[in-house]
Amino acid sequence: MTWWHALIDAGAVAGGSGLGVWDRGETATYDTSIVEDSELQTHPIPPNPQPLVPNPVSFLNGMERWSVVAYDGVAQIVNAYVAVAVCRRDDRGVLHATLERSRAFAIAPVGRLSPALRALLEQGAPDIEPVDDALVGQPARYLEQVESTVRRARAHLERELADAATAALGADEWLVLDGLLSRSPAVARHPRALGVIKSHGAQFLEGRGLERALTLPAGCRTSVFAVRGGHTRTEVYSWYLRLWPWEGNDLLYGLLRVEARADRETVARASAVSGWLWAERAPLATPATRWDRLLYPLHHVEEYLKAHAPRSPAARSRLPVA
Amino acid sequence: MIEKAIPVAIGRVVATELKPATPHQFHFWTSIETPIGIGAIVKVEGFGAGGSGLGRVVYGVVTEGFAYSDLATPLHDVVGAEGDPTRPAAATARQEMRYWTAAVLRQTPEEPLQPVPLGQVYLADDADVAQALRMDTFLYSATPTAIPVGLYTSAGRDAPVYLDADFLLGPEAAHLNISGVSGLATKTSAVEFLLASIFAHFPAHKGRVAALCFNVKGPDLCFLDQPGNLSDEDRQRYERLGVPSTPFERVQLYAPLKADGVNLNTLRTHPDLVGDVEPLTWGLQEVVDYAEVLLNRDDIDAKADAFIDFLRDRVLGRTFDDGFGTTHRVQTFADLDRLFRSIFDGLEITAGGRSDTWRTHHIATMRKVRNRLLNISTRCKGLVTDDGPSSDLPWKEFEDRTVYVIDIANVDPLGQDLVFARVVSKLREQLERRELGVDAVVVFVDELNKYAPGDGPDTYVKKMLLDISERGRYLGLVLFGAEQFRSQVHRRVVGNAGTQLFGRMDMDELATPGYQVLTPATKSKLATLPIGELMVRHPHFTQPIFVRFPKPPVLRGRDGVERFPPAADVPFEDAVVRQLVRLDRRVRPNQVKDLIADREQDDVRRALATVRRTRPDDVLAFFRKVLGARVDSEASRPRERLAVPPLNPISDEPY
User: Fold this and answer.
1) What ipTM score was computed for the predicted complex, to two decimals?
2) Which residues contact B535 (CB under 8 A, 6 or more apart)?
3) Dist. CA B119–CA A109, nearest whole Å
4) Which residue of B31, B68, B92, B96 to mutate against A (max A Cβ within 10 Å)?
5) B73 near B94, Cβ under 8 Å?
6) Cβ separation B77–A283 shorter than 8 A
7) What is the pLDDT of residues B318-365, one digit of tens each?
8) Residue B544 and residue A167: Cα distance in Å, rounded?
């Protein structure tokens, strides 16, 4: 018996065989307050063989793709593509794209390019996102800047389309977004909009509450807590929901954070909404790597966008050209 | 002004490195709700990369279908349902697709032959079907030779499919073979429909055509002149195909007599219909030319052949001295038996048993030939008469668009072989001389598994079928053969059939090597094909095509027997009366009965046969005359016996 088996036998929970997981990206700590209980509690989702799944529901997701396509000295010129779509689920459970928006653009340190190349770039790629010329000499930081530029462009597009989608929602129609609800005030205040967050870089809880959230059993949710808005965010209510057992995997396995309008009604129906999302575990969003946290309809939207995206230059053969 | 509907694409060609498009095959996807199915004909209008496929049109037939979802492994579905198959379906349907494989039927332009471009896929309309199956060449020519074989009904279409008469009835190719399991009435029905279609569409410039069908089981082909029950749907199909939905106008049915020599050996003996049935009886002259049919493989030797030739050339129909002091004139089996007895007696008595040879022929050879020849008159009594005249098909007077049915369902197998051999030989002989009365004859033979098996001895009938298959098309002698197991029919018989039809097939049969060219999906479709659907292979079609044909416009055999139950055999006197009344309605039954009272039945039969053959104006007077006169060929000599008994018809003795 190994020493960790001894720990597990003594009451520790078995972990996965991997390196342990914590999400990259945003790592801020937010100010929160519990709005459902006096302290963060665990609430089992009421068993319901026929969970109330709203109909119709629209799902919003986006994708991004970028690659360095040319060099002017060490200046890296990037071709980027972001796209966002909304798919509505019909009575038969089939998803149909209803809204779609995309942006293809170049990212380049325009001021550091040679005049000839700059002229060609400006002529061939009318949509250019400039990068700080000073970073050209630091390729690693330059690429981080490129990545955040692309992500920002995608977030902007998602916000625009979410605004359009909520404005077009039918009387009983819901909108489920992949990501933060709180980026757009209009969306964050909509009574039938949900944000489903599967990345957990940002920390909202601490101490006993954090432990309860991260060791939440499958089929349970936490109490609802309010997330105070930062300078770019509108206040929303949120709770954690575990879709699949984390034991034997990692703390974030199957863990979602749900965002909804900051309203008492949200607290009242948190369990019902959790039951709905619990029912959305099937079909599995395989072969996506994060299928444990990715709802299949959102995975579908992503696949739809990928199918429509222009071919990635990175996919070209790296074999030498004769 | 007629506005043509703009076709709507129903799919798109896709090609991957693993499943590329080739000049003979391509793959495409459609939406889930699609009218496409196995056998559907589609058209691809290509654009390809950079418009490379522009102007190229490809026609294909769907040969395989697949359904995919994005489920990576079945285990994921189990996990999603938490191992509970009763769990309600998920709110979201998995992304799913229909993916089809099609075999290329035709490309335009045909050269250079290139892989199918990545184009849009459309359902084929009537004009596309004609193009795809290359029917345009014989359908829209100055002298069209199109024969409708059915309707292409896949994907909700209703397009007529035609065969090329030059390739169905010669001279380019010929013959048709149809396979299918028994009991679904598909094979017989298809041939009946196709004959009706041929009669309606056989081009005038190709001359006159008739059909001759051997009815080898039950009442299958006994009611071709009686209307069947057609649904409105069937009538619409007839209209669409331009074939009249009426029974055959001209049908002549022939059946041998039963052993009593007066009642017909057929199931069409209902009083309302029996009058249309002609007796088929043959005498020695008709049989002896086909004596080889009666000899099995062990019998075939040069000696027997030589003796039969001797009889044929030197004895039959001639005055002949047997060398023992008796002169013979052999015209009937009875005459032949007398000759043999005279020879055997002569060798025994006159030669004192010291010689066993007569005119260079050994007595054993003669006994063998005698046994075989005389046995037939016993085994096929009613078809073969011991003596007396024959009643035969209207040789040299075959009529255009007429079906001749020979009912040999209840005849001894040896007799069936004899009928088949003689009829086909006569057809061939008269077609060669262009004196049959028609330019082409379709011969329909069911049960090829029995008559032309792939293994087993080389019978005379099998040789004849091979001969028709290989040389018939030059003569206008066309074989329409049917069987249950195509794989077990002689490969040259099925291989020479230019057109092949397949009804519902047995899976075991489909597992044989002859069906390897078909995809599993096509085999599945064949194994579950509904009544009235066929798969067609024809020289113009590069791939098998599924068609639906209407129910034949004639009464099916089983229905015919129910509607017209066969009459019981009538007594000898009544049967004679019936036959004479049929020839002349003025004949009074009592007059006939008085006339034949106390007369030998053989005398009455001979007289009746003579009347049938002569067909006089005054039937009764002629009957009285021939009955009163000596009808036997040798009037002066008293008859030795009433009939010729076989020497030993069921003996195991080899001769």
Assistant:
1) 0.81
2) B39, B501, B502, B522, B525, B526, B529, B544, B545, B546, B547
3) 42
4) B92
5) no
6) yes
7) 888 888 888 888 888 888 888 888 888 888 876 666 778 888 888 888
8) 55
